Amino acid sequence: MSILGSPWLDLFAAAIIGFALGRLTAKSSEQRDREQKSYEARLRQLRSRISPETQEAIRTLLRNGKKIEAIKRLRNDLGTGLKESKDLVEAWDQ
């Protein structure tokens, strides 16, 4: 069943609507940059809250190839989300 009388016309209309919605909801590069800088500042703040004991535990887990356990430890100790904890662990040596 076709809404506009032709399956091809329906497909074309859906593509146009999708494009228009994408343009309406797209973020500017300046807005993406601001959000990225804000997120990086949040990660720096979180990193400063990691206790020395947790830092040593994370180092040990990473040396032993236990990245997932390191992420879990950070999530548990800091109360952060998965993405934040993963990003912190991945940037640990940098």
Describe what this molecule looks like in 3D.
With 94 residues, this protein is mainly alpha-helical. It folds into two domains: 1-48, no CATH class; 50-94, no CATH class. The chain is 77% helix and 0% strand. The protein has helices at 7-25, 29-48, 52-63, 67-78, 82-90. Helix 3 packs antiparallel against helix 4 and helix 4 crosses helix 5 (82-90). The protein is elongated, with a radius of gyration of 22 Å. It starts with 6 loop residues before the first helix and ends with a helix.
Keywords:
mainly alpha, single chain, 2 domains, 5 helices
Distance between the termini: 57 Å
Total strands? 0
What is the helix/strand order? HHHHH
Oligomer: single chain
General form: elongated
Briefly note the structural class of the backbone.
mainly alpha
Radius of gyration: 22 Å
Q: What's the number of domains?
A: 2
Largest β sheet strand count, sense and barrel closure: none
Strand proportion: under 5%
Count of helical regions: 5
Low-pLDDT runs: none
Q: Percent of residues in helical segments?
A: over 70%
Mean pLDDT: 90
List the helices and strands and how they pair.
Layout: H1 7-25, H2 29-48, H3 52-63, H4 67-78, H5 82-90
Task: Give a brief rundown of this model.
By secondary structure, the protein is mostly helical.
